[in-house]
From TrEMBL:
Tagged with keyword ATP-binding: yes
UniProt keywords, alphabetically: 4Fe-4S, ATP-binding, DNA damage, DNA repair, Hydrolase, Iron, Iron-sulfur, Metal-binding, Nucleotide-binding
A matching Pfam family: Helicase_C_2
Aminoacyl-tRNA synthetase in keyword set: no
Listed InterPro entries: ATP-dep_Helicase_C, DinG/Rad3-like, Helic_SF1/SF2_ATP-bd_DinG/Rad3, Helicase-like_DEXD_c2, P-loop_NTPase
Protein name, UniProt field: Helicase ATP-binding domain-containing protein
The Helicase ATP-binding domain, residue ranges: 29-317
UniProt similarity note: Belongs to the helicase family. DinG subfamily.
BP GO annotations: DNA repair
Domain of life, per lineage: Bacteria
GO molecular function, one term: 4 iron, 4 sulfur cluster binding
Amino acid sequence: MHYEDEAEERVYHRLNADKIAGYLEETGSFASFFDHYEERPPQLDLTRAITHCFNDSAIGVFEAGTGVGKSLAYLLPAFEWALANKVRIVISTGTINLQHQLIDKDVPDALKILGGCGEQSEQPQAVLIKGRQNYLCLRRLMQTIQEPDLFSQEAEELAAIQKWAQTSKDGARSELPFMPAAGLWSKICSESDNCLGQRCPFYTDCFVMKLRKKAEKAALLIVNHHLLFADLASRKEGAGYASTAVLPSFNAIIFDEAHTIEEAASGFFSRTFSRYDLTRCITTLSRTKKGRAAGCLEKITAVSTKAELMPAIIAALAKTQTAYSALEARALSFCGNVSSLGFTQVPASKTAALLAACKDFYAELNILNVKLAVLITNAEPDEGSPYEEAVREGSLALHRLQDISETLENFFRWKELPDYVFWIEKYQSPVGEVPYFNQTPVDMSGLLRQAVFTPFDTVIALSATLKIGTSFSYWLGRVGLHPFSDKPVRTGTFESPFPYDKNVLLNIPTDAPAPDDEQFQQFVNTAVTKLIEMTGGKTLVLFTSYESLKQTCAYARMQLPDMELLQQGEDDRSRLLQTFKEHIDSSLFATASFWAGIDVPGEALSHVILVKLPFAVPSAPLFRARADAIEKRGGSSFMQLSVPEAVVQFRQGFGRLMRSQTDRGIVTLLDKRALVKQYGRIFIDSIPPTKQCFASLEEIVYTVENFLY
């Protein structure tokens, strides 16, 4: 089937919303695959609402609670719309887990339903597409295998990858039976600016080209938010909306996990660099392996008419690295004892000192870039020779060095760019603290309005956490839909069918010290330990501070030496989660990413402890810049930014508990601000009605015992 690539005004074939929702009724085709099928009225209503959005070229913003079955509610109308109108639709998710759930389970279910109805004469396709660097490049693999100075471990990994590639369907790194070293994968993965296209000897077997051809025939493209924004940025910058950019053309978008799209867009439209970006480029150009030169510079020099520049380039490389080391030292001094700091948060003299070091590095980097450009531009390699590949690698390294230079130019003009926040963030690494240099848009609403909501006929945004209280206004404003007049914007809430009022107990200890009280940490240590002991493990403890997490876990391990207490940071995230799922009596102490996107149904997770209301750190540079912008408009940054963001995160943390109809358990919040502060009610009202115990810790422990046993 051909899906239209032409952008033109056209009349669409409308869908029958009741008919599509009927597939999911007790008498519908889906029920025939189950012995005991129960229809879910919220799922039927959501299916109708999404279908109406397609019919009316509208934007739909829908909150669907856990268990509604939102995947089928959008897949069915999406497939029907694509088939009826010969258009392509993108489904964008926030997590890789959901991508795989869609392609492995939900899409086959949807196709089974449509096939059972006899509605289509041909089978539509859905294709999962990841970022290009997730796929193996056969040409780069063969070139790397032929390198003369491979270490034995590299040679073994490459041999295993070569054997795997002979039978792999899609060449995706995630399908490998082992995780290759990051440095090795970077040498053999597919890269757009390193691609020969049809000139490549491996073009016929190329995994990326095969995927592109499948995508062109597909009705639905399943991607993550970051890849979608890469495509949208390319279209916005001139690729247009009627042709292939990163993805084939499409005319509708469905965002699942839509509460994360602002963050994803912000990350994509930011500019950042660190020592790792510089080192990667320099290593590509000039490195030694087993005592021999292994970079691409020597090969480029051998075929360049400007070979005499080689000594000057080697000297410029050394000076650039020296200047960057000085800049790193200045950046770490700039941050001092905090992990991140913006230019507007410090005295002007401190920013000036940092920018002086930036200018020194910029000067050396530009000298290097100019000389490199002359050397590479005057290279004349034979087609298909190793020298041609060296020139291509050198050009790619030069392009990346020029990107760093452009970012630095923006840093020098930071006062002229008030729509961006410029900031330094430092991370701990095996070699010590590493600073990152960042430029991030303060407000994403305009970009999202222009790139997402205006150009496409229909955009659907779905999540379990879009509202603050009863209103969508906060989320609509953040993404550029409040106000919005280009097309209808529809909102709707579809409640979870799970019995929260019977199966969930919410505890808040009234005798907890305030979170800023010095006694609070000891209270947390005691409370967490007592509650884990009472529930026999099966507990996820979510913190807002890694330091607090470490203290509480250490205390609990001393008090409960026979219990399995897992700590984030002591093992790989996915292995920790797998251990937590499989070892039913274990408990997991976690922060940040574990507040959202993890799915542990059943008895293994019977208790979620939320240590604090998850307010953002008010001094974080991006948060501070957004707060300042609200204050300048005469608003309250606390009520218009701090509280709404914390509510969304709180709802995500609460949502870790109930993952199936039969789940039963407890959520304990150790932060009594939810009870004693005026804004606290917003948090309580943002979650489904539950059983409640707002009492002393001692009474809560007793209530937990009675509730569970």
